[in-house]
Amino acid sequence: MDATKQLRIWSFSLLVFIVLLYVLRDVLTPFVAGMAVAYFIDPLADKLEKWGLSRTAATSVITIAFFILTIGALSTLLPVLTSQIIGFAGRVPIYFDHLHAILEPVAKQIFSGASEADLKELGATAAGFAKQAFSVIGNLLQKLISGGAALFDVISILVLTPLVTFYLLRDWDLLVARIDHWLPRKHAPTIREQFRLIDETLAGFVRGQASVCLMLGTFYAVGLSVLGLEFGLLVGLGAGLISFIPYFGSILGFGVSISIALVQFSDMTQVGLVAGVFAIGQVLEGNVLTPKLVGEKVGLHPVWVIFALMAGGALAGFTGVMLAVPVAAIIGVLVRFGLAQYMKSALYTGNPTDPS
């Protein structure tokens, strides 16, 4: 089979995958979630096997423990977070009014040369952007928490995800061996190498970055709550959980926290302590957590991650968001492989005698 025909087959397969993903997006959520959990905890199952447990026993212990801890954490945090979300939504206008009163003199000093009409126009433009942003966020939250489809997703995740996780985790090594058996023998070494690079990227980003996000979220939430910041648990967890985009989570959390602190505290020392929590978090992330848990060879650019998340959400909703990072990692590895092949080819070197 020549290269052109192989390219057509793989392109057609990719097209079929995208179409099926779009058509089945409403029922894939528990299966994708189960695959993600199984991949995340597979190394722990391998360790238990080395310690003498059978694969089934190791899988049972890990799956049960994982979901007990997850459900316990959610049942503890969700009521508090729900209360804080409702309270924060009600306080947003108050925060805007207070911040406007604080920042208005500064803005007038900065734009002292501008006319009053220009300042009003600038303020109206900024207010319009803010209202539009909050409208988009509100519509997104409404879509996520309302409707029969959302309820079905929640029930299916709670019921089906543990089952999918158990069976995939139990048969993980068998599935890998079966897929390896299906590889074309001529290209098997090259394909195995690309799968190894994909696994290295996913292990670094998904397992490593997820651990970093959880630790940062816990640190920010505890730190802000200890300082008595309103909605500190919500802001801290949110800032940590979106820290998989470098600096974005910390910058957003810092901005929201400082805004709340300026309104809540009259003592600037308290505001400085809030800022200190994020400064310490950045030091821990940059010098301890990321080097130890993620490493330096993840190979996923922040802009590529953001685009993948947006594209996945637009294509397949919540399921697409869960698939976004793994698919982005796979595409990244394949693009780098393709570029390496291109750099060796006569198309790049201009040497027609080049064997590649």
Strand content: under 5%
Number of helices: 12
- Give the overall shape: globular
> Based on the structure, what is the oligomeric state of the protein chains?
single chain
The N- to C-terminal Cα distance equals: 17 Å
Give the radius of gyration. Answer: 25 Å
Q: How would you characterize the largest beta sheet?
A: none
Q: What structural class results from the helix and strand content?
A: mainly alpha
Q: What do the pLDDT scores average to?
A: 78
- The residue fraction in helices comes out at over 70%
Unreliably modeled segments: 144-149
Q: What is the ordering of alpha helices and beta strands?
A: HHHHHHHHHHHH
Q: How many DSSP-defined strands? A: 0
Describe this structure in words.
The longest helix is centred in the N-terminal third of the chain and has 56 residues, at 55-110. The protein is mainly alpha-helical and 356 residues long. The chain has helices at residues 3-23, 29-50, 55-110, 116-145, 148-170, 172-182, 188-226, 232-241, 248-264, 268-293, 302-344, 346-349. The chain contains twelve helices and no strands. 85% of the residues lie in helices and 0% in strands.
Brief write-up:
Helix content is 85%, strand content 0%.
What is the element layout, followed by pairings?
Layout (H helix, E strand, L loop, with lengths): L2 H21 L5 H22 L4 H56 L5 H30 L2 H23 L1 H11 L5 H39 L5 H10 L6 H17 L3 H26 L8 H43 L1 H4 L7
Question: Can you give keywords for this protein?
Answer:
single chain, 356 residues, mainly alpha
